[in-house]
User: What shape does this take?
Amino acid sequence: MSHAAPPENPKEGGSGSLVLEIIRRRFSCRRYLSDPVDEEKMADLKEAVRWAPSACNRQPYRFHFITDRPLITEISRAVPTGPASVNEWITSAPLLIAAIGTPEVFWHRATQVIDKDYHRMDATIAMDHLSLVATELGLGTCWIGWFHRRKTGRILGIRQGEEVVILMTVGYPEKKPVNRKPRKELEELVVNRNF
Assistant: This one.
């Protein structure tokens, strides 16, 4: 497997797309400054999830914006297995966002036929939009998949029928990465089907 280093100039290798530049700038941040995310930026993050696409525009989700430090600490300890300290870094983030999905009856039955969990896909799409807006605003983010869904749901007091799909930390990075992680070459990822 060969890898390509990200271009020195983020606009290289394309048309100069601003969105592509933001995608290249985004990194998984696990150390944050203690400064809170200001309300104006928080409002933009909320708009990002609001305007994200979803299957049939159903928007089968809610997003918990958590700034309460004891609550963030409690959630960080809700791991599936192993020491709770594995997610201790989460506590440095001034903001933790929990995407809560709701499998609707019709779609849930349909997913058994077509093998797709739309509420999870939709919530994840919305979180990805949020992460890109956060990057544009100078904020760092990190996806968190290593957590116990039921424990986290109980901590948050989510409604019956809902589930915690994914978590994301947000805040001002303590430092930006010196070296960007390489990516696979396009030939390894993209198949051009020309007929």
About this structure: The chain has one domain: 27-174. The helical segments are 18-25, 39-50, 69-76, 105-114, 118-136, 149-156, 186-189.
